[in-house]
């Protein structure tokens, strides 16, 4: 009877896990272009480091908001970040809504005034200006260079990571994100 119970538990666990595996498989199948740099992983925690909104409100990235999120770590002095940010803005315009959002986190010393000036200079007005002023969260989750972009599932867990800049407004990037979202 004990073996039957374990077999039933195993079968139930696999049945619940299969939709997630299918979503990742579909996303991996959609990988092309800049998205070839994207590495997928089993869902994993993103740490408990606090980030700060532009207005000074403290937030925890690991707290789920029920949306798929593309989370970009950047800095005002980062040239690839300057190149990539308008594409993240376009991704937010194209897919943002009840099921998806782009979040930006300036890590290290990035004064809010300089962050706002950076966004103004590159014409980005639809992305949030969050900060990780002491890089605590960035260090905790292994952000070793910039930019780094994570994809979080609706439970607030990292499922993919891309190091370096990428064309997040591309059809390839949207296909990956839509494939991940399709089973949730």
From TrEMBL:
MF-aspect GO terms: antioxidant activity; disulfide oxidoreductase activity
UniProt xrefs under Pfam families: AhpC-TSA (PF00578)
SUPFAM superfamilies registered for this protein in UniProt: Thioredoxin-like
Signal peptide residue numbers: 1-17
Domain (Thioredoxin) ranges: 15-182
Domain of life: Bacteria
Keywords recorded for this protein, A-Z: Redox-active center, Signal
InterPro entries: AhpC/TSA, Thioredoxin-like_sf, Thioredoxin_CS, Thioredoxin_domain, Thioredoxin_ResA/DsbE_sf
Alphabetized PANTHER family for the sequence: CHROMOSOME UNDETERMINED SCAFFOLD_47, WHOLE GENOME SHOTGUN SEQUENCE, THIOL:DISULFIDE INTERCHANGE PROTEIN DSBE
Protein name from the UniProt record: Cytochrome c biogenesis protein TlpA
Taxonomic source organism: Tropicibacter naphthalenivorans
Source organism phylogeny: Bacteria, Pseudomonadati, Pseudomonadota, Alphaproteobacteria, Rhodobacterales
């Amino acid at each position: 009877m004990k073996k039957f119970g374990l077999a039933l538990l195993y079968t139930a666990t696999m049945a619940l896990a299969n939709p997630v595996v299918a979503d990742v498989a579909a996303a991996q199948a959609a990988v092309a272009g800049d998205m070839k740099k994207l590495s997928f992983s089993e869902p994993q925690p993103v740490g408990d480091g606090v980030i700060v909104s532009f207005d000074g409100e403290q937030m925890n990235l690991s707290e789920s908001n029920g949306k798929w999120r593309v989370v970009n770590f950047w800095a005002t002095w980062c040239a690839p970040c300057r190149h990539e940010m308008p594409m993240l803005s376009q991704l937010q315009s194209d897919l943002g809504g009840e099921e998806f959002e782009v979040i930006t986190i300036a890590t290290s010393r990035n004064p809010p005034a300089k962050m706002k000036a950076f966004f103004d200079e590159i014409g980005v007005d639809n992305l949030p200006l969050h900060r990780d002023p002491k890089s605590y969260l960035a260090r905790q989750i292994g952000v070793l260079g910039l930019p780094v972009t994570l994809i979080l599932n609706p439970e607030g867990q990292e499922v993919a990571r891309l190091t370096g800049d990428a064309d997040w407004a591309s059809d390839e990037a949207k296909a990956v994100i839509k494939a991940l979202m399709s089973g949730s």
